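User: I'm preparing a small set of examples for a lab meeting where we compare how different chains pack in three dimensions. I only have the primary sequence for this one, and I'd like the structure in token form so I can line it up with the others. Please keep the answer compact; I'll paste it straight into my notes.
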Amino acid sequence: MLLPRIAQARDQRPLRVMLLGQSLIQRAICDDGWPGMAAIAALLRRADVVFTDLETPIEGEGAGEPTRSDATLHRAPPAVLDCLRALGVTLVTTANNHAWDLGTGGILSTIDALDRHGIVHAGSGRDLDAAAAPAIQQTPHGGFALVAAAAGAIRPGAAAAADHPGVNELRRRDDGSLEPEDVARVLAAIRTVRASGATVLMCLHNHYWEPVQSDTPVWQKAFARACVDAGAAAFVGHGTPAMQRDEFYRGAPLFHGLGNFIFQTRKADGAYGASAWQSVIVDARFAHGRFVDARFHPIRLDATKRGEYSSGSPELVPSGAL
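Assistant: Understood. Below is the structure token output for the 322-residue chain.
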């Protein structure tokens, strides 16, 4: 695995990273703005790195026909990336069950659009090596690396292979255990990029849900700990439209489910409970490749329909208001 040279830290202060829930953004809501937009952007722009899950493929030349025909189809124009950039987003995972909603061409058009917009990304690629490779954002405090994978609801054709674009899939076997080959690939990527000197974030988008969505699967907890053992400074989970309990392991936070940051769904009003419309922004600090501390900024999302989609826009709320 050939990695770019990691810049040495020029600033000895801790690296500040904002960790967000998933961004299901299908229209450029920043054009019109919303109450609370300025406060969200002001907070995020204080960070060196702002991370989210891009929960939609980006339309563009070569994107295929929709591979879904229902209300769960996700697709967005490139302008949504301008919106994310305006809010402060610098780093995204593209490993999720919706990455293939516009087919293999949509995987590639998304990668191309992110590159044009200068947003660092990991989790999908032109082949499996590229999809599994860490992405590194250079900062004055040193490199910050993302390794990303998706588990569950990855349809045939969506997973990357040696000769096929797609997402970095973490498969489960019939007995419920994780495919050792996939686990080894993820852990090797973490070890390699950590050895280069970067601070490492591992993100898993999981759709092997428990009967109660707010519960974290036992296997995910074990996998997250293995990622920390391999060198990850923190673990973030996405997938369920609800938050899950956090853990600490060997000084590293395991944020198993951060819920939603932007949630523009086509589904009817009431299709999602209140938990889909509330989350937190994790305001974390790292130094020398390890977690230092974090603050939590609660947010509430607007569930009001705006034409075809819910508004889904976030607003900061006082602690204890949720």
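A couple of notes for your slides: The helical segments are 37-44, 79-87, 103-117, 128-132, 180-195, 218-230. DSSP finds six helices and 18 strands in the chain.

User: Perfect, thanks.
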